[in-house]
Amino acid sequence: MFSMVVGAVLNVILDPIFIFVFHMGVSGAAIATVIGQVASFVVSVLYMPKFQTVCPDAAAFRLNGKTCGNIVTFGLSSFITQFAITIVMALTNNLLATYGATSVYGAEIPLTATGIVMKVNQIMIAILLGTATGAQPIIGFNYGAKDFKRSKKAMEIALIASEVVSVIAFLIFQFAPMSVVSLFGSEEGLYNEFAVMAFRIFLLLCPLTGFQTIAAVYLQAVGKPVKSAVLSLARQIIFFVPAALLLPRFMGVEDVLWTGPVADGLAFLLSLGLLLHERKHLKKVISASFQTMEKKRKEVYKHEK
Hints:
mainly alpha; 2 domains; 11 helices; about 85% helix
């Protein structure tokens, strides 16, 4: 965390210096970002010799096919999530420009306003991913150690935390969207109208996002990478893309916004089904584990007797 904070703080300090003091504009912002990333890298490298439980040596850096395969397999869900966000933004921007041009808002207002919505939504998703990523090693470790109850408890705590964040975000987006829009500049008329509408429609079912995020990471942590990858694809690609291509044909630019809640709702139903199936399987495993322990206890008791 220290290495990440160093890079982020350095970036924030250098941005105004390069942009306004040295008049370097966008190039200055880019240079500040790179310097921040390099600083985080240096701090991380300097810390490596201080690891107490892991001692990296030359052999540790040799590539192993099986290990690389496991990393790719179990990291596939996170990769899909990040990559799909880019696809969704590109598709949404193109549709907003196309259908917005034929509306009273024009092409620019929908693009700008929805860009704000996307950025703010990314902040919420980043918090949810942070919660899920923090719970992942706890869930995975205890699942591997066959302490299924603790694994389940960790998932439940992560779900509650993510839902609290999602509901707070939902209340802000629905009842005080202008307080968020005003942070990005003051506009009037049609711009504010579309921005408020975009927040209220596109993020209508954002409380379900926390559930989807935790469900995908939980499946990844317990060794179900295929299910996790499907769940990650569901919201961003499987449901969102068809909805985005079909809905705007009926009501134009406004229906581009409705693709968000449609995709969220369908992805939630899929994640709920997968999680309930996994929970049912987990109950069977816990029951079988308990029976095995009880059998061993009886055998020990009989032997001692």
